[in-house]
Amino acid sequence: METFGARLAAATHARGPLCVGIDPHPGLLRAWGLPESVGGLESFAMTAVEALAGTVAVVKPQSAFFEAYGSAGVAVLERLIADSRAAGALVLLDAKRGDIGSTMAAYAAAYLTEGSPLAADAVTLSPYLGFGSLQPAIDAAAANGRGIFVLALTSNPEGPALQHAVTADGRTVAQSIADSAAAVNAGAAPMGSVGLVVGATVGWTGVDLSQVNGPLLAPGLGAQGATVDDLKIVFGDDLSTVLPTSSREVLQAGPSVAGLRTAAGVLAEQLRDALAARR
């Protein structure tokens, strides 16, 4: 079975290093002239799929915006996942789940196991019950050719108080998470399937990410203010495993399918050229 790391490397090589977030929050629904209803949600999601899933490497639906509409909203999310994968995009479900024992195993079954209607190619997870609590998801991802992205350095102002706290062994919490991911990914080629979420706007952190050997999801590009130069500050000179993420920068070009596709294509090409120049 081909690993997620290998599939992601192939996808970004073929389609450019861009992940587009699909975030149907109320403001965007209104901007697209859509009602704040399940019908509006479905129209938004399916338009985004039509425009993006055939061309970008990764789409990242934010689960919370679908869950807000109850079971009908989750049904839209299931369709989005299936249709996006059928069109060739990898789907990273932004769910940020984290728990222990049988509950973590149930989340893993829902998001990472073949046959589940919510199974994506990868899912975001929170490690703040301990990195070891993620083991059921790590195992499920490996068994099903899928991946996980673990929160490490987030851009919210509350994050540093926890992520930069120093542990008993002298490392920061963020460094310990990066080191744990590196241990799982050791020896994988072209890269491992355990990625990290590192905000593109966090600046220099002192955390060594060079040994992670896995994808580094970098949200915050574009409308949130981050640039390719910011990526170099955060990640260093080697940006080969960085997966920049943009949501509003692309979604504000909707509801036109052509407009969305053009915005994503331009950004993907800019990133391809800029990241290649810095490797």
Detailed description of the structure:
The structure is a single chain. The protein is of the alpha/beta class and 279 residues long. It has a single domain (4-277), classed as Aldolase class I (TIM Barrel, Alpha-Beta Barrel), CATH 3.20.20.70. Helices cover 46% and strands 15% of the residues. The chain contains 12 helices and 8 strands. Strands 1-2-3-4-5-6-7-8 form an 8-stranded parallel β-barrel, surrounded by 7 helices. The radius of gyration is 18 Å and the shape is globular. 47% of the residues are buried.
Provide the fold topology.
Layout: H1 4-15, E1 19-22, H2 26-31, H3 38-52, E2 58-61, H4 63-67, H5 70-86, E3 90-97, H6 101-112, E4 122-125, H7 135-144, E5 147-153, H8 159-163, H9 173-185, E6 194-198, E7 216-219, H10 228-235, E8 242-246, H11 248-251, H12 257-277
Parallel strand pairs: 1-2, 1-8, 2-3, 3-4, 4-5, 5-6, 6-7, 7-8
The gist of it:
By secondary structure, the protein is an alpha/beta fold. The protein is built from twelve helices and eight strands.
What attributes characterize this protein structure?
46% helix, 8 strands, 279 residues, alpha/beta, 12 helices, globular, TIM Barrel
Please give the CATH architecture.
Alpha-Beta Barrel
Mean pLDDT: 95
Q: What is the rounded distance between the termini?
A: 29 Å
Structural class label: alpha/beta
